[in-house]
Amino acid sequence: MKNYFMGLAVSALMVGAAAAEEMKLAVTTSFHNSGLSEILLPAIKEDLGLEVQLLVVGTGQALRLGAAGDVDAILVHSRKAEEAFLADGNGTHRREIMYNDFVFIGPVADTAGIKDAQTAAEALSQIAATEAIFVSRGDDSGTHKKELSLWSAAGQTVDDFGDWYRAVGAGMGAALNTAAGMDAYIIADRASWLNFHNKGGLSLLFSGDPVLFNQYAYIPVSPEKHTHVNKDAAQKLEDWLVSGRAKQLIDAYEINGEALFVFNAKE
User: Fold this and answer.
1) 175-212, pLDDT tens digit by residue?
2) End-to-end Cα distance, the chain
3) Cα 117 to Cα 105, 110, 121, 123, 152, distances in angstroms
4) Per-state percent for the chain, helix, strand, coil, to nearest 5
5) Please, what are the domains in the chain?
6) Bridge partner list, 263
7) Which of 21, 116, 143, 217 has its C-alpha lying 20 to 30 A from 82's C-alpha?
């Protein structure tokens, strides 16, 4: 009899597990490295009974996964690329969720002298002029796309740079590790930097230019183009991400008293 009831209990657990809805969400490495997913995913599962499987990649790869119908939705941070994704019919719409900013990290000694720069363009021009070692993600991520646009705005051509410019083709955490090992300059999102534990001799040297604004947006993959996507789960997750519950968790997420993101979704 005991084994019978144990069997019923196990069966009930299996039924409960099978009943949990699942969806695939492609997210950026910067979002994942921030640690925020460890806060949000358990709450999503508790509130919605929804198991969100993350595919952690750069924005460019996340967009390609969405275009191929390999995920149900994406959470990325490169507006120009997002709008092109939508224009090609790959997503249904774009919903802004939260933002932070990009920051310039570099050696405490600041050999390029960017700490006193007035603009991001000036800071990059000083790095180029001094040929201080600079680590680029080089991975077609949202951060990489932003970096390239900033160099362009500063009147600099990446293809003309010497070996002081190191494109590593890696995610945010790995690129920061490389910069720490080389005592190099790098552009990172603030959340990843704050949650990075191997800072070594690096410090946040420049921030605050409005061009460094970093918006994250949620885009459901088009069910018309990919009929197999879980559009209902994608909608449930979107409704949750713009809710008061999400706002509370996102705005309260801090490291050493400093907020990593600011919720700005509109219901």
Assistant:
1) 999 999 999 999 999 999 999 999 999 999 999 999 99
2) 53
3) 13, 11, 9, 5, 17
4) 45, 25, 30
5) 2-99+213-263 (3.40.190.10), 101-212 (3.40.190.10)
6) 98
7) 21
